[in-house]
Amino acid sequence: xxxxxxxxxxxxxxxxxxxxxxxxxxxxxxxxxxxxxxxxxxxxxxxxxxxxxxxxxxxxxxxxxxxxxxxxxxxxxxxxxxxxxxxxxxxxxxxxxxxxxxxxxxxxxxxxxxxxxxxxxxxxxxxxxxxxxxxxxxxxxxxxxxxxxxxxxxxxxxxxxxxxxxxxxxxxxxxxxxxxxxxxxxxxxxxxxxxxxxxxxxxxxxxxxxxxxxxxxxxxxxxxxxxxxxx
Length: 231
What we know:
mainly alpha, two-stranded antiparallel sheet, 6 helices
């Protein structure tokens, strides 16, 4: 492998390397918030940040080699299922070595690694989310001097176009379904209730069937004759 090839791959590893360093800085800050001494927090930053940066940079190199693909999480999840527990084990051993001078590991080491494997799923989601948003901008900056970056950027563009076509197809399908069903008819207004018959011996108001334009219908008083008693 020539020096030029190493330089190209090193440039592709920059986004993942930076994300790993950022994760180490967050780990050191959390150690300070938890009340740990400054030396312990600095040791945690180094012993966790360095392996995460190495694994993050390796993720970018493997993506350029075609092992990982933009928008695919399954292979990335398997990668961090192994890488994250190894980084946490490095933190446990390295921090105790830097602070006390001798490495100290947990007695229930298998349980510790199994738990870190579960935690790795959340870290993988965050890493991939960040990598998908940082890497395209970085590739656009270096594509003129790095052919590998140009090829990887083309894969990102193809993935974005695929997502856009899928979105347009869903919109067209929804529009077609609305066209088949047709527009909804407006609801018919409720029919007026029939007038009640006036009781015998009372006066019922009657509206003029043909009122003048713009004027309210006048009321007429109609007397209802009382019923005639039969003999």
